[in-house]
Every structure is written in C-alpha cells, then in structure tokens.
C-alpha cells in the first residue's frame, strides 16, 4: 500500500482509505496501475477493522487506476470522495466523485460513482495531463461555494489549481491558481488547512474559518513532504505565503525521514486536526515480495501551529498511550561526556520512550554555519553520534545488538548562531543493520530553540519493530525511519541507551519508557470478522 487517501471521521467512526495495490507487494513494471482504495475503520485510531476495497477501477474515467483523493463531509452529513482516475495506460488523469451507497451503514462499506464522472477533465492550457491529480478536501468560502485544489504541473511549474462549485458535483476552474511556485514541478497529495497560531484546536474546513487563522499548504514531491505557512486571501482566492522561499531545499518539512504523501483531516470527535502518512519500505523489492506486503502508515499525529506562527507541531494522538504497559521511570540522571545509560525493563522492539535533556551549561555550543541548512543529512553524517561536540551529540541509541555492531542513533547537537541557538536532530541509520542492500541514510533537520529560556530538549521515540518515529522538542521536528536490524529478525532482544558525547554534561531530569501492546487489527469479509 501507499498513502492515506481521504481520511475522515463520520458518525463515530474513523475511516482510513488508502492506495492499495491488489496485484501484490510490488510490481516493478506497473506498480501503480490498477490501484484501488483500500478501506479500514476504527473507533479509536488504534484498533482497526480492514474492509473490502471501497473504490475500484471500473468506469472509463478510472479504468487504469483509482489514485489519491480526499473526503469532504458536506454540511456535517454527506460524505463525498473526490479522487483521481487514470483513463489510460499513459496515466492521463481526471477527477471523479464517489458517494456512500448507504449512509446508515456505520462502516460506509459500499461507494457508488456518480454518473457525471469525470467531474473535472484535464483540459487546461499548458497542463501535463499525466500530472494532474490528488484533489484536496473541500473548503467552503463566505460566498457559500465549495473549493478544492488539485496538484498539477502547468508549463513545467508546480501548481495548486483551484476549482469552485455550488453543489460539489459540477466544478469550474478559477483561472488564477491557489498557489504556484517554480521551485518545484509536479505537486502530489496537496493538503490545505487552516490553523490558529498557538492553539492545538483543529479547524473544520467545511465551516467558517475564524479571522486570525493562518493557512498551511503542504506539498509532496521527491519523497519529501514540505509545507508553507501563509494567509488565504479570500478576495483573490489565493494563498499568500508569509515567506517565499525559492530554493526548495530550505522549505520546512513535515517530517525529515521516510514519511510521504501525508494527509490531514479534522477530527470532530476531539476538535483536533490529525495528520498521518505513508512510510515506505527501505529494504529491497525482493524483501517486499518475500514478506508479501510493503508500506505502512505512520502513527496518527495531532498537528497544530506554534505560537510563533511559523512552525507546525506534531504529537502522536493521545490514544496511542492506551497501548503503554510496564512503565519504567528514571529521574535526575546525569550524562557526562562518553556516558551510556542502558534503559532496561521494557520491550525494546515495541516501545514508547520520552526523555528530556538539559545541558548544564550553554557556553560550549559550537558555531553554526548557515550553509548547513541546505543539507542537514550531510551534517548528520559528518557530525555523527561518535564525533564529540560542545553541547551534544546526546540522545538515544536504539535497536542495538550486544556488541553495538547494529544500532540506530537518534540525537541532538546544539549550535550557536548570532542571537539564537539552532539544534540539529539526526536519526542515523547507517549502522542500523548488518544486512546488505538496505537504504540506510542519516536523516536530519534543523530547528531554532530558545536554549536560554526553555533549557530542556525533549525526545520522544516510538519504536514498532521496523518503524522508528521520533519527535524532537515537543514535536517541532519529526523524523520517521524504517530499520531492519538482524537482531529484530532473530527477536533476541535489542538494547536501548541514553548517551551523551558532548563535553557539556547533560542532565536527564525525566526519562519514562513503556513497552507497547499490539493493536488489534481484524479483517472483515462478507459481513463477519475472519481474522483476529
Ligand atoms: N501515489 C498515488 C498518486 C500520488 C502518488 C498513486 C503519491 O495519486 O500522486 O498511487 O505517492
């Protein structure tokens, strides 16, 4: 499977639709043809029931595949899916609509395509018609009209095309796009949502957006999910970024690891916005075929905008805490240069770890070089966990074998830049496995930090065997990684440590960790649960 398509919460049930390849884990020639919309449901975002696919290619306007799209709930009652259909083997793309056949079925198992499909054709001057896809969730303007954006490449430029509709069925393109920027070409899986700076309450795009709200445009390209914060100019129907960045290497990322094609939705049960994404395998295609599956979805995260109006914050949904067992707790630890503290007493292959680091002095921060911003991974490779620093590196070593031949390091390093401090967070997979043929980069990203006032730098890492999701500084920076240590296959346990390799001693005022229970995932066929 690949990305989430059309997540929604409707009548007490969370729906997770997703791109699913019914032909197998991987087909090197044609892997994205014939895609269907897989469908799972949950009441808590943790335990899931897998259903039959909701949408399959069977009409001329999706005959070669049902690609990504979104769900919108019209006026709180009517769910609608709008998705991209492939009309031929050349991957020419149009947009289609499907509606639930029976709204009183709590799982909304069956979906019917409307007779007027395709509702949006690929006839636009300069459009590359095989790059015209992934419509967003709809939003409503003060004029009562619905809008959606569709990702496209127009005259070689990445564009969020804007469409308007009175009834969500018949759509007119607005000539001026919602936004375009020549730093990138095709934009996949656009996401467009409103946020109130400093508030973790989500906003429903199907309702009026309060004044003072900002808007976020997320684009997916080249395995990276990037976002821009700005304002939505209602008069011009245009997204205006707060800062225009022409070099896309400097765009802020939703996550600096293997986390792609994310999609958010408004969760009316908790009044929050939830985002999640596809995390692809980083082993080999033959591994995928042997496993019989490929691709997972991240843990859903609540997402909101920091009080500074610049930075999105993400945090695993609180429901994930229901899987915690066997808490261990350490307080007042001190890590001097070279110290390694083993975290024992939990299942290190399936764990949730929360740790705070407090440097005892801020004097030894090394000087920041702004050119590093262009390539944080290079900095993570060169200044890795074994390279002594001033403040840091400190962090966690996880999934480590007895002799450390295999391990993954998640760590921070603090730099001083003129008036502020900049932190580098890395998730270094280069020694994560002894197996050859894996993709094992050192992921990394930078973020600003008010070290003088905030003092504590927090790290939360969720380990679910091959999936390692790390949240730095309360969710200001996130890195998802996939690792395949031999120790994991052997299931003979792996070690976990907190470490410091900087000359400044680091206090650990609080370290809490838990083993995580398995979530329950059932599969439903023909009306009954067949596999628990
Ligand atoms: N995957 C879908 C496309 C989308 C791409 C096809 C992103 O709609 O652009 O499965 O991963």
Automatic annotation (TrEMBL):
<dbReference type="Pfam" id="PF00251">
    <property type="entry name" value="Glyco_hydro_32N"/>
</dbReference>
<dbReference type="InterPro" id="IPR013320">
    <property type="entry name" value="ConA-like_dom_sf"/>
</dbReference>
<dbReference type="GO" id="GO:0005975">
    <property type="term" value="P:carbohydrate metabolic process"/>
</dbReference>
<dbReference type="GO" id="GO:0004553">
    <property type="term" value="F:hydrolase activity, hydrolyzing O-glycosyl compounds"/>
</dbReference>
<protein>
    <recommendedName>
        <fullName>Beta-fructofuranosidase, insoluble isoenzyme 4</fullName>
    </recommendedName>
</protein>
<dbReference type="InterPro" id="IPR013148">
    <property type="entry name" value="Glyco_hydro_32_N"/>
</dbReference>
<comment type="similarity">
    <text>Belongs to the glycosyl hydrolase 32 family.</text>
</comment>
<dbReference type="InterPro" id="IPR050551">
    <property type="entry name" value="Fructan_Metab_Enzymes"/>
</dbReference>
<dbReference type="Pfam" id="PF08244">
    <property type="entry name" value="Glyco_hydro_32C"/>
</dbReference>
<keyword id="KW-0325">Glycoprotein</keyword>
<dbReference type="InterPro" id="IPR013189">
    <property type="entry name" value="Glyco_hydro_32_C"/>
</dbReference>
<keyword id="KW-0326">Glycosidase</keyword>
<keyword id="KW-1015">Disulfide bond</keyword>
<dbReference type="InterPro" id="IPR023296">
    <property type="entry name" value="Glyco_hydro_beta-prop_sf"/>
</dbReference>
<feature type="domain" description="Glycosyl hydrolase family 32 N-terminal">
    <location>
        <begin position="1"/>
        <end position="316"/>
    </location>
</feature>
<feature type="domain" description="Glycosyl hydrolase family 32 C-terminal">
    <location>
        <begin position="319"/>
        <end position="515"/>
    </location>
</feature>
<keyword id="KW-0732">Signal</keyword>
<keyword id="KW-0378">Hydrolase</keyword>
<dbReference type="InterPro" id="IPR001362">
    <property type="entry name" value="Glyco_hydro_32"/>
</dbReference>
């Amino acid at each position: 499977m690949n990305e989430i398509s059309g997540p929604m919460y409707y009548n007490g049930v969370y729906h997770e639709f997703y791109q699913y390849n019914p032909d197998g884990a991987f087909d090197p020639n044609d892997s994205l043809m014939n895609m269907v919309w897989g469908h799972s449901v949950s009441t808590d975002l943790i335990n899931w029931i897998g259903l039959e696919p909701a949408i399959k290619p069977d009409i001329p306007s999706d005959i070669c595949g049902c690609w990504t799209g979104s769900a919108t709930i019209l006026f709180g009652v009517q769910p609608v899916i709008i998705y991209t259909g492939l009309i031929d083997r050349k991957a020419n793309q149009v947009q289609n609509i499907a509606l639930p056949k029976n709204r009183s079925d709590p799982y909304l198992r069956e979906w019917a395509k409307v007779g007027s499909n395709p509702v949006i054709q690929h006839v636009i001057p300069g459009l590359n018609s095989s790059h015209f896809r992934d419509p967003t969730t709809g939003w409503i303007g003060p004029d009562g009209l619905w809008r959606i954006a569709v990702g496209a490449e127009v005259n070689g430029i990445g564009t969020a095309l804007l469409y308007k509709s009175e009834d969500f069925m018949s759509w007119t393109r607005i000539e001026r796009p919602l936004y375009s920027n020549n730093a990138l070409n095709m934009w996949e899986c656009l996401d467009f949502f409103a946020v109130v700076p400093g508030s973790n309450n989500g906003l429903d795009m199907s309702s009026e957006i309060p004044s003072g709200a900002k808007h976020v445009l997320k684009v997916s390209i080249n395995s990276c999910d990037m976002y821009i914060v700005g304002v939505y100019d209602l008069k011009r129907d245009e997204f205006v970024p707060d800062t225009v960045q022409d070099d896309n290497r400097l765009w802020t990322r939703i996550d600096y690891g293997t986390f792609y094609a994310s999609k958010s939705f408004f969760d009316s049960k908790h009044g929050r916005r939830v985002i999640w994404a596809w995390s692809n395998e980083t082993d080999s295609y033959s591994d995928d075929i042997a496993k019989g599956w490929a691709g997972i979805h991240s843990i859903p995260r609540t997402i909101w905008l920091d009080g500074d109006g610049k930075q999105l914050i993400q945090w695993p949904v609180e429901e994930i805490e229901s899987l915690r067992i066997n808490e261990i707790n350490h307080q007042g630890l001190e890590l001097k240069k070279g110290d390694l503290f083993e975290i024992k007493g939990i299942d290190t292959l399936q764990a949730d770890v929360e740790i705070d680091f407090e440097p005892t002095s801020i004097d030894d921060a090394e000087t920041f070089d702004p050119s590093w911003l262009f390539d944080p991974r290079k900095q993570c490779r060169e200044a890795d966990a074994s390279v002594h620093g001033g403040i840091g590196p400190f962090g966690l070593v996880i999934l480590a074998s007895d002799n450390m031949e295999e391990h993954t390091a998640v760590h921070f390093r603090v730099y001083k830049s003129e008036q502020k401090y900049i932190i580098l967070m890395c998730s270094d997979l280069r020694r994560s496995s002894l197996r050859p043929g894996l993709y094992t980069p050192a992921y990394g990203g930078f973020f600003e930090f008010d070290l003088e006032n905030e003092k504590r730098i927090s790290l939360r890492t969720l380990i679910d065997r091959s999936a390692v999701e790390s949240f730095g500084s309360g969710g200001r920076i996130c890195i998802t990684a996939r690792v395949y240590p031999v120790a994991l296959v052997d299931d003979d346990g792996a070690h976990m440590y907190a470490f410091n390799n900087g000359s400044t001693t680091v206090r650990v005022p609080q370290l809490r960790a838990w083993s995580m229970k398995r979530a329950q995932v059932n599969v439903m066929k023909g009306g009954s649960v067949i596999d628990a």
